[in-house]
Amino acid sequence: MNQARNQAGNQAGKQAGKQARKEQPHAVVIGGGIGGLTAAIGLHESGWSVTVLERAASLEPVGSGIGLAPNSQRALDVLGLGDRVRALAAWEGDGGMRAQNGRWLVRTSAAAAEGTYGGSLVMLHRATLVDLLVSALPEKSLRTGVRARLADPGTADRRAVVTTDDGDIEADLVVGADGINSAVRTALFPAHPQPVYAGFTAWRFVIPAPDEAFTPHETWGRGGVWGTQPLKDGRVYAYATARLPEGGRAPDSEKAELERRFADWHDPIPGLIAAVRPEDVLRNDVRHLTTPLPAYHRGRVALLGDAAHAMAPSLGQGGNQAIEDAVVLAHHVAPGADLATGLAAYSAARVPRTTEIVRRAARAARVTHLTGAPLIAVRNALISTATRLGPDFIMRSFSSIADWRPPQAPYAAGTTDREPVQR
What we know:
Layout: H1 3-13, H2 16-19, E1 26-30, H3 34-46, E2 49-54, E3 65-68, H4 70-78, H5 82-86, E4 94-99, E5 104-109, H6 110-117, E6 122-125, H7 126-135, E7 142-144, E8 148-152, E9 160-164, E10 167-171, E11 173-176, H8 183-188, E12 196-208, E13 217-220, E14 224-230, E15 235-243, H9 254-262, H10 269-275, E16 282-288, E17 297-298, E18 301-303, H11 306-309, H12 318-332, H13 339-368, H14 373-388, H15 393-396, H16 399-402
Parallel strand pairs: 1-2, 1-11, 2-7, 4-13, 11-18
Antiparallel strand pairs: 3-6, 4-5, 8-9, 9-10, 12-15, 12-16, 13-14, 14-15, 17-18
Helix pairs in contact: 3-7, 3-12, 4-12, 9-10, 12-13
């Protein structure tokens, strides 16, 4: 990330709330992750003056990948970024789901995904996506190294107030995009249950691709999952999960823990583990918000992404749903429209969809983390049987997620002929 640009943004941004042009309402986005950055772009395109406040000193995403499904690609079309993401696709051939011993349970392809969903998965490094989003932000809108707190959510007659170390910022709209431990969510809904442990932990790493070619896959084994996915830049993104007590850590290194748990799984898994440096393996317990919020707004504040609906990664939809949130929010709160009505419409559009995806992700996590051999055998047999009913039978079960379209026709990526579908 360009440090000079961050510093310039910090200096200029201190007065952003006071200096915003009178004809533009001012939005403050708390959190500079994928959802927050996307929201800032969408609001700016809609006519808002935006300020993004990020607590970290710089935007340096963790060393992991993210898969963007067709639904979030269509959302990015609205911002003129969809085709730039599609150009980063590395998956062009076969892929699928495997058993721990390497047997294929489901075989599919990028072409089949295109036919079923109208697009295929694009796997890219989070840093690549963040850089792409930052490049679309208005100049001087990003402030890093800023601790922000929602002091007042505001009302129809009173602007919201965000407190920082440099003083208070008044805002016509505040977007809480501050992640799973969202302080904004707690401020809006102090009595609501917090995210809970999903029952498993996750490891992630990115390394150069091995010399021997491999087919992209996700493997379901005993009590855990392994995924190996190529990136466009010649690297490989690998991820693994296992059912473990909350808060655990390996006594030696997380690489050693991966070796203990996955080194006897099929190729290329052992070789990938052998190739990664111990310090490059990330480990995080997985938590999700299983009790849905009653709304994703209150006063002049909207929540999005993990702050609103943290979910297990079982369907790969966490970041995708944050991007959807951002584009739908920008659509409903266009300047000149009634903000309260727009925020209510945003909640009405997003709460049912994301609540169902959180539940489906939790159910999928239970299925993928079975530990009993008989249940695993039944699961794998059912998957194989379903696949024999048609090559895209399993894929069609994901269609209600992947075929989502934004609430306005995309205007930037040659897709204006598609009818918008809201779910």
